[in-house]
């Protein structure tokens, strides 16, 4: 439910933003109007997350959010796919997010828990903002980010 609420909020923010006329981007990706801030693996490399900022049509004109990827992605026999409370990181390792092409890349178990293969999940391709820019735009975000990190 937490993942759904975050996704719903991000979709609302993205829809409130000016339309993106670049049709080469995935139209069903709620982050297509958002900027990447950073990616992390979290506690013991088992709780990956992505920070992003999305435009608003009212002050502060930018909303920064952190999406816990375990809440939204599952490892389905070596294939990453969307599913609420998926917990993919329990059976995946060495995850990286390639923000320039929008791919999450991990080594994930399939069949046998000791067999791993490289798998990819497209999360979105967006611009880049620094954490400093994000914090400067949203004082409440800075407070939340400091508590959660």
TrEMBL record:
UniProt xrefs under Gene3D superfamilies: Cyanovirin-N
Signal sequence interval, chain numbering: 1-16
Top-level lineage group: Eukaryota
Keywords for the protein's UniProt record, in alphabetical order: Signal
Pfam families: CVNH
Start and end residues of each Cyanovirin-N domain: 34-109
Cited SUPFAM superfamilies: Cyanovirin-N
Protein name per the record: Cyanovirin-N domain-containing protein
Naturally occurring in which organism (per UniProt): Colletotrichum fioriniae PJ7
